[in-house]
């Protein structure tokens, strides 16, 4: 089930505070986040995120095509199955 339109997109407050710090200092530093459920907003375009997938940090740079998707969609948590040849 999707989130109600009147509530707006969900973004963790800790992620927004990190975003504001980066914007004030104009640094190119990557933002570390565990919030895979946060929605990508237009303010995130051009920023780099390190998203934790439960095992390692996955580096993601946000582009215009990613707006409206969640951060977790770009850091996969499961490995692809590779079958052995006999």
Automatic annotation (TrEMBL):
Keywords: Mitochondrion, Ribonucleoprotein, Ribosomal protein, RNA-binding, rRNA-binding. Belongs to the universal ribosomal protein uS19 family. It comes from Reclinomonas americana. PANTHER family: RIBOSOMAL PROTEIN S19P FAMILY MEMBER, SMALL RIBOSOMAL SUBUNIT PROTEIN US19M. PROSITE patterns: RIBOSOMAL_S19 (PS00323). This is Small ribosomal subunit protein uS19c. GO terms for molecular function: rRNA binding; structural constituent of ribosome. GO terms for biological process: ribosomal small subunit assembly; translation. One of its GO terms (cellular component) is mitochondrial small ribosomal subunit. It comes from the Eukaryota. Pfam families: Ribosomal_S19. InterPro entries: Ribosomal_uS19, Ribosomal_uS19_bac-type, Ribosomal_uS19_CS, Ribosomal_uS19_SF. The gene is rps19.
